[in-house]
TrEMBL record:
InterPro entries: VdcD-like. This is 4-hydroxybenzoate decarboxylase. It comes from Streptomyces corchorusii. The lineage of its organism: Bacteria, Bacillati, Actinomycetota, Actinomycetes, Kitasatosporales. It comes from the Bacteria.
Length: 77
């Protein structure tokens, strides 16, 4: 079973598969939106190898500050 390397959530969505079948998939976590390709190293794809300082808990996600929206581009005058 695949879990999110960053927050250990169990709902993972396959976003894309490689043009060559079976080479890699792009996966995304349903809770923290972390996205990774299955061909990346273990420190990016496996919870036990993911750096502890970057791991998230449900509490940290719930208490995260809102990221401000990117303002619209200015048009040249």
């Amino acid at each position: 079973m695949t879990i999110c390397p960053r927050c250990a959530f169990e709902t993972i969505e396959k976003l894309y598969s490689s043009p060559v079948p079976g080479v890699w998939d792009v996966l995304q976590c349903g809770r923290c939106l972390y996205t990774w390709r299955t061909s990346e190293p273990a420190r990016r794809t496996q919870r036990d190898a993911y750096p502890e300082q970057f791991r998230l808990t449900p509490e940290a996600i719930a208490n995260a500050p809102e990221v401000p929206a990117v303002p619209p581009l200015r048009t040249s005058a």
